[in-house]
Amino acid sequence: MRVAGPFAALLAVLLPALAGGTPIVQQELVVDAPVAAYGLGGLFLTRVGGEDRQELVDRSVRRLFATGLFREVVAERQAAPGGVRLIYRAARHRRVGEGKAR
Tell me, what CATH number does 55's domain have? Predict the structure, then answer.
């Protein structure tokens, strides 16, 4: 079956994303406060050059959260040339006595 016209362009964009075929061209962890990052990279199941698969993103978020370092972890996707930019955003737990300077 061959599809042409604007519908074909829409399918060309949507189908790879639905099938998990969109490549990850950039990936980063953004934290709201300093944190020792040693070893955190091993918690990501997603990789630059790999496919953007929701189940791997979800598992990566859960693994980051399970470290106990963060009170919130979310993943965002941004369209990028050649694929998707995957951004993990984390909010660190505050320690007792640690607050905002006045």
Answer: 3.10.20.310
